[in-house]
Amino acid sequence: MNSQKLIKLHVGIDDTDSAEGMCTTYLTCIILKKLEEYNIKPMDFPRLIRLNPFARYKTRGNGALSFVLELESRSDVELVEKIVLDYVEKYAMFDGVNTNPGVVFYEGEITQAMRDYAINAIYSIYTIDYAEEFAHSIGARVHKFKKGRGIIGAIAAIGIELNDETFECLAYRIPENYGTKRQLDEESIFLMNEKTYPETFDNIDIEGNYAAIEPHTPCPVLYGIRGNTPSIVEEAHNIVKSYEQIEDYCIFRTNQHTDMHIQHGVKIKDMVNTGCYCFSCEVVEKPYDIEGGHVFFKVSDNTDIMECAAFEPTKSFRDIVRNLCVGDKLTIYGGLNDNHTFNIEKFKLNEIAPQYEYSNPICVCGKRMKSAGKDKGFKCPKCSRRLRDGKKIRKSIPRDLDIGFYEVPTEARRHLAKPIVRMKLDN
Ligand code: ATP
């Protein structure tokens, strides 16, 4: 038996891609493949961790990557670090103005301070200096390329603790096909969805009736399938047919669709821009449309008033929002953007405020009466009969909404937002 003490090495990588190409998940996948040549395998699935959705320099979904190895010797540690750094050097999109890769190596067990750092990288915004200082305080080795902003996410991806988790199977294209139309059999995607939903989710955009698993960027990803377990995403991957060659695929453990970004128990008066919250409130100003198809309305929780928005990309969700009325009681989930507008991801309608319309009474002759002047009651325009103490007739207006949850469609969903179909798992 080998009594030698193994070295636990955590590797974090972030910010290697740009809108023009690459994807840090792909880079992680090919690094792991290279390590396999040396018989070095990760202890668990690599992790794809989504951080603050409002981080200014994100390319798309603010994802950072990490994996853990158990190594036998210092020379193995050196070998791994060299391979990781060489791969980042070779494959990162250094031309991208906002591509500032960061790689972090950490040996040992994850501490509470690292878990706290990680959750706050989801709740708030850090500076590169703060991240670097923190890395030194835990004895991590930090490698910054260009500005090295990626170290912010790389440290968080190493330290995050997952209480809820999902998995994503990402299939990658061969480089010759980057930038070309993805050749997928759409029917097989619908079949996969039929067989695996709701254990997999966000495969189909119900509204648009099209496959939502393929990105529309020139990156190496052919498609990504999200689900609750590694086995279901792999099963789903095996059902999808591709007419182009798949270079490789990799399953990631993730915090996607867990609502990990949502902070509970914060009052409107204490909410800050770039924070994401869940709070109970009442509608105090009815929804209205602004140019561009965005729908705004105001709510209050008795500490302050918040402007909420369902933006144009949320499509038919806006029709639900348009139906809200003053007095409706809601629990809203979402985040505060830089303009201090709350972007709604989903809401629960808890109480529907009754709505009424008022009309003048009908005269005994059958004609609708008219006002006889302020405080003078009503007068019939046909038979001149008067009704001095008459009151307007109140009629209930039916509401086109039911108590319950409403969410934005798949295409508009943030990576961290928990779909309603997953919320049912909580009960
Ligand atoms: P993709 O989804 O394609 O992987 P991305 O949206 O993840 O791209 P990145 O290229 O990773 O974008 O860029 C995000 C940058 O923001 C990284 O440098 C990351 O370190 C940084 N970052 C992440 N979280 C925070 C935060 N809380 N505060 C400040 N910067 C952050």
From TrEMBL:
<feature type="domain" description="TiaS C-terminal zinc ribbon">
    <location>
        <begin position="360"/>
        <end position="401"/>
    </location>
</feature>
<dbReference type="InterPro" id="IPR053870">
    <property type="entry name" value="TiaS-like_TCKD"/>
</dbReference>
<dbReference type="InterPro" id="IPR013696">
    <property type="entry name" value="TiaS_FLD"/>
</dbReference>
<dbReference type="GO" id="GO:0002101">
    <property type="term" value="P:tRNA wobble cytosine modification"/>
</dbReference>
<feature type="domain" description="TiaS-like TCKD">
    <location>
        <begin position="11"/>
        <end position="146"/>
    </location>
</feature>
<keyword id="KW-0436">Ligase</keyword>
<keyword id="KW-0547">Nucleotide-binding</keyword>
<dbReference type="InterPro" id="IPR024913">
    <property type="entry name" value="tRNA_Ile2__agm2C_synt"/>
</dbReference>
<dbReference type="Pfam" id="PF23783">
    <property type="entry name" value="Zn_ribbon_TiaS"/>
</dbReference>
<comment type="function">
    <text>ATP-dependent agmatine transferase that catalyzes the formation of 2-agmatinylcytidine (agm2C) at the wobble position (C34) of tRNA(Ile2), converting the codon specificity from AUG to AUA.</text>
</comment>
<keyword id="KW-0819">tRNA processing</keyword>
<dbReference type="Pfam" id="PF22641">
    <property type="entry name" value="TiaS_TCKD"/>
</dbReference>
<dbReference type="GO" id="GO:0016879">
    <property type="term" value="F:ligase activity, forming carbon-nitrogen bonds"/>
</dbReference>
<comment type="similarity">
    <text>Belongs to the TiaS family.</text>
</comment>
<keyword id="KW-0238">DNA-binding</keyword>
<feature type="domain" description="TiaS FLD">
    <location>
        <begin position="148"/>
        <end position="261"/>
    </location>
</feature>
<keyword id="KW-0963">Cytoplasm</keyword>
<dbReference type="Pfam" id="PF08489">
    <property type="entry name" value="TiaS_FLD"/>
</dbReference>
<dbReference type="GO" id="GO:0003677">
    <property type="term" value="F:DNA binding"/>
</dbReference>
<keyword id="KW-0067">ATP-binding</keyword>
<dbReference type="InterPro" id="IPR055394">
    <property type="entry name" value="Zn_ribbon_TiaS"/>
</dbReference>
<dbReference type="GO" id="GO:0005524">
    <property type="term" value="F:ATP binding"/>
</dbReference>
<protein>
    <recommendedName>
        <fullName>tRNA(Ile2) 2-agmatinylcytidine synthetase TiaS</fullName>
        <ecNumber>6.3.4.22</ecNumber>
    </recommendedName>
</protein>
<dbReference type="GO" id="GO:0005737">
    <property type="term" value="C:cytoplasm"/>
</dbReference>
